[in-house]
């Protein structure tokens, strides 16, 4: 049995011995007589071998997996209807044995015997998330949040792009003529075994059937974007980041949703044409939460993507998670890309990265990573000398952009730096509520306004490059 959180195998079978051969034959016979709902495959996703009727174009890559096509049934929890799509290419394969098994595809609506290309391209996301019971009640429900974003912006359309949910729901299977949600509970039930929640004490004895409850979810969204690594120059990168953060601010202010995972993987590049100015799209609301419409903050919780997590997030400081944490993540995204290179033409080798202090943002204990970031962010001098000086030398806009973001975030005179002033012994201090990272929560609106001003200023500078 292969589950998201464990693999379970039969006892060893020694084929050279009679008992081993008997066990093998017994397994083969049982497999041959096994009902379909116990074979473990996903019947809602089918590989297409005859692609003659599919008007979906060829692959632009050398990866043979890009020529593999599937038809996928996508069930919508709200309308209670199933829509069929056919994939054009795989964006992200589920290439790990354990975990969420996230897969992403570019697809079009399936129309009868072929593809309905007139309906436009969509992105399909398929994954297994931890869930409560029933599975609809999971606190961080991306489908619920995307539905709220869609409904809000359909009434008051913004002038930026946003992730628009088309279909969203749990994958449903048929077991013994009944429609059931595809969860780990359903898997155990098909195997005739009851799943048990894992013990809260990690040292407690556990049985093989003590597994997390996970629910299989599938979303269909538009528009379709490309990796942020496809930007062609630093001007495009700044425009994409500025657009994505405008989307972020609108979603926070109008929908009351805090993203909490700004990273290079969650900002996409959207192009309307080959020579048009790119736009930025913010995606992946798996870690997002609805927040108090007045305070715009969430309870302290340590989550996100290294090396982009804010210092307060890494240390799980006793202060609300708010927009400043996500803006801090944006600064780290800029610094990381400016250091390692924003495209394949500029990419810095891992061996060369080992000579840069930014490497400490992703290796070591959480305290070591947080301490490194505090040191790097504490003053304009340390930030420029330790971080900005190591940017790829061909960049001109990005160093100024990063310095302006850093000044707006860590240079506010009411809560400057990432440490308190040196004490009499010359030591740095954080000292609880006097920690600048905690004090700045009182000035969040002022700091965010300054950050938004920086983005708008540099977006105009970047756009001017395209008019030259």
General description of the model:
It is a single chain. This protein has 468 residues and is an alpha+beta fold. The chain has two domains: 40-222, no CATH class; 228-467, Transferase(Phosphotransferase) domain 1 (Transferase(Phosphotransferase), domain 1, Orthogonal Bundle). Helices cover 31% and strands 19% of the residues. The strands form six sheets. Strands 3, 4, 5, 6, 7, 8, 9 and 12 form an eight-stranded antiparallel beta sheet that branches. A hairpin with a 4-residue loop joins strand 4 (69-76) and strand 5. Helix 4 runs antiparallel to helix 12 (444-467), helix 6 runs antiparallel to helix 10 and helix 10 (397-410) packs antiparallel against helix 12. It is globular and about 75 Å long. The mean pLDDT is 86.
Detail the topology: elements first, then pairings.
Layout: E1 2-3, E2 6-7, H1 18-32, E3 45-48, E4 69-76, E5 81-92, E6 103-111, E7 114-116, E8 122-130, H2 142-155, E9 164-170, E10 172-175, E11 178-181, H3 184-190, E12 214-222, H4 234-255, E13 257-258, E14 267-270, E15 279-282, E16 289-290, E17 297-298, H5 311-315, E18 321-322, H6 323-340, H7 350-353, H8 366-377, H9 380-387, H10 397-410, H11 436-439, H12 444-467
Antiparallel strand pairs: 1-2, 3-4, 4-5, 5-6, 6-7, 6-8, 8-12, 9-12, 10-11, 13-16, 14-15, 17-18
Helix pairs in contact: 4-12, 6-10, 10-12
